[in-house]
Amino acid sequence: MHTGTQTLLDQWLKWTACAVTLTGAACTSLDINPVNVYLLNLGAAVYLVWSWRIREWSLIVINAALLAIYAAGTVRNLLLS
Is residue 2's pLDDT more than 80? Predict the structure, then answer.
């Protein structure tokens, strides 16, 4: 545990986001589409929730931006297919 102030929920969110994001990256390297994109969206969303809970602004910015980019790409691909 990082500090005494982190809750069990914070730990679960952080490590779940990590596992989901790594799985999404692995799916990308193995060309498993569109599962990779969905996992990367989910990972960014969970990381965003966690970073908001701990008020870590650099993580909030990067994960909000990643989620916006991934979501825009997902919507674009859905509309074009």
Answer: no
